[in-house]
Structure formats: C-alpha cells, structure tokens
Specification:
- The protein has one domain: 2-Layer Sandwich (Tetrahydropterin Synthase, Chain A).
- It contains 2 helices and 6 strands.
- The chain has a 6-stranded mixed beta sheet.
- A hairpin with a 2-residue loop joins strand 1 and strand 2.
- Helix 1 packs across helix 2.
- The radius of gyration is 18 Å and the shape is elongated.
- The two termini are 30 Å apart.
C-alpha cells in the first residue's frame, strides 16, 4: 500500500433528526396524498479546524434543526410546478413548502443539502468543508441521499 492509499478523511455527522410532513407522490402508480415521519441524517466532510473537528456537533445539529423546523416540519410538501393547481380549503392553517420537482425523498435531500450549504456559508463556517451528504428516510428502510461537493478556497 502506498502512502496516499492510507489517508482517510474526516466526516462529522448528526443523525436521526425527525420531521413530520405530508406529500403527494405515486403509491402503486397513483398520486396519493400521505404523510411520513421523515428522518434526516447529515454528514459533512472536510479538513479539521484548529479545534480538531470538521464542525462542532452542536452547531451542525442546530443548523439542521433550524432548516428542518423552518422549512419542512408539519408542512405540506408540493412540487413548485403545482402551485397554481392546488387549492386548499380547510378550517385550519396549512403551511406549504414548494420543492423543485416532485416532493420525493431525493428532492427533499437535495433541497435540505442546498439550504444547509447556504446557512453554513452565511455563518462563515464553510471554508474547511468539502462536501455535505444528506439522507432523508421515509420510515426505517426507505432512504435517499444527496451529496454536494464544495470548492475549497
């Protein structure tokens, strides 16, 4: 084994962050409104800081929870293209989050990953982070992941 093949990488993760939402996706081929307790796992890869971590667990956890609570928790998740075709009349408040594309676990993982990147950039803590991986699970065994790679400057 040469020296390069033994080098590892540092990855910091927060796991099992839940949110509750409804979405309309095909079930057995027919679009059906239904809900889930979604579970989100987030891992960031990067260089160690002077504190010997990629990112403080608490900071990452707080950012993930903030994104989830503000944008996804207790929401109706809809494809942005359907915004003009959906009319909801209800005796209660319905909060809607529009997703770029069908509101699948894949789309949610992508959009959450993008939001996390924006939050990290705004807080000035993206300089040592190379990649972000978001996994969104519908239940315990149905998951989708999205990975974004950042350019380090």
């Amino acid at each position: 084994m040469n020296e390069g093949s033994r080098q590892g990488k540092y990855v910091t993760c927060v796991k099992n962050i839940e949110f509750h939402a409804a979405h309309a996706t095909p079930v057995n081929g027919t679009p059906l409104l239904h809900g889930h307790t979604f579970v989100v796992n987030v891992c960031v890869e990067g260089e160690l800081t002077e504190k010997h971590w990629v990112i403080d667990f608490t900071i990452l956890s707080n950012i993930v929870k903030e994104v989830i609570d503000q944008e996804y928790n207790f929401r109706l998740l809809l494809d942005r293209r359907d915004a003009s075709r959906v009319k909801i009349i209800a005796p209660f408040d319905v909060k809607i989050t529009y997703v770029d594309g069908p509101p699948t676990a894949e789309s949610l993982a992508r959009d959450i990953c993008r939001s996390l990147g924006e939050h990290l950039l705004r807080r000035g803590i993206l300089s040592n982070i190379r990649a972000c991986r978001v996994t969104v699970c519908e239940g315990s065994n149905l998951c989708a992941e999205y990975v974004v790679y950042f350019t380090m400057e």
